[in-house]
Amino acid sequence: MTADRADRSRPRSRMTGPERREQLIAVGRKLFADKGFEATTVEEVAAKANVSKPVVYEHFGGKEGLYAVVVDREIQALMGGISAALEEPEGARVLLERATLALLDYIENDPAGFRILVRDSPPGQSTGSFASVLGDVAVQVEHLLGAEFKQRGLDPKSAPIHAQMLVGMVALTGQWWLDRRKFKKDQVAAHLVNLAWNGLSGLDRAPRLVTVPHR
What we know:
This protein is mainly alpha-helical. The protein contains ten helices and no strands.
């Protein structure tokens, strides 16, 4: 018997429960990134992992459970990077640069994870969506802007609006950059911060629309 035949004749070691769970998460993650939640089936996950459908249900209770685990991990990775960028107070401009780079870093290093977050989510699911993630980030940015507004003599009550606008601007630009890598990451961040910072620097204290009659 040759060594090759001997290797094939040995029984394969079975995965432990935690190992199988991690394998299914990795398989599901790739499918969700490539096809989205709706187009992915339990049958596909099982086939790719070379297991039966009941094994998937045993670990996650179904496709929704697997998706929730995958999304939760992506959210932790993204929020971890952004939160770390906002930890040390070094001025609003520096923090804005760091937060912008943190999101772009995540997109660059983990495009599959980012695609999962911006793709479709299960109907009726309000948590774990990209919108909810951006909302959490905006809350952190809001406090920073509030302090900056006070120093500049602007109304800090408008900070939540500007936080949503800033985070949305960076996120949408990040989605665009994901598939159009014509610019380097630092260039994208520099342009974003330039628009955001200089826009904030020139804010009117009482903004009004020129096309709408004053009331």
